[in-house]
Amino acid sequence: xxxxxxxxxxxxxxxxxxxxxxxxxxxxxxxxxxxxxxxxxxxxxxxxxxxxxxxxxxxxxxxxxxxxxxxxxxxxxxxxxxxxxxxxxxxxxxxxxxxxxxxxxxxxxxxxxxxxxxxxxxxxxxxxxxxxxxxxxxxxxxxxxxxxxxxxxxxxxxxxxxxxxxxxxxxxxxxxxxxxxxxxxxxxxxxxxxxxxxxxxxxxxxxxxxxxxxxxxxxxxxxxxxxxxxxxxxxxxxxxxxxxxxxxxxx
Length: 251
Known about the structure:
Blueprint: H1 2-19, H2 27-50, H3 68-94, H4 102-120, H5 122-134, H6 145-163, H7 165-168, H8 175-195, H9 198-202, H10 210-250
């Protein structure tokens, strides 16, 4: 267990160094770090699309499970989780009488779990297991179990924010970042749900155009999700800077 924790700390340090450069985030470093993350994300998405033609691949090949955009999402969510845990560690020293700072620990753990869920598809495996145990038809209504699991994830996150409201209210300091992150998440969710409605879609699109529409929805879904993660990184970076600068100003 200790070896795993040591590896995790080293991995976290490398991730911070690659994306942020320095954990002592000034306003200038914050802007540069956010811009770096945004450019890396946009670059990977555009590269996946640009390489499709010369490599004779489908346009959405890079957006499929286990492909470059999945790994981009994995590292982005990990980075959000690590930043949240850094906020918790910092506040544990500077504001140790405030029990609500646990919110940052739980959010950090939550985002790290989401990173591995996105990579290893835990929610889909849970869906398949439930269908297998109870003998449900995977292509029937039970096919939506994985969507219900995602909703449960959202409810758990919301419950944490409500439970530690006096701490979560401080997130308004990053309302612009969070606003765009939530907007991108909503767009991604709509595309995901729409992509699963092949029946209704087939009444509006013929057999030739339907696969292209579904592929387009997949690309928009994954792109919007990647941008949501970029804005979440910006939001948590901004909160980290806010808490550190607040202590500096007090001193």
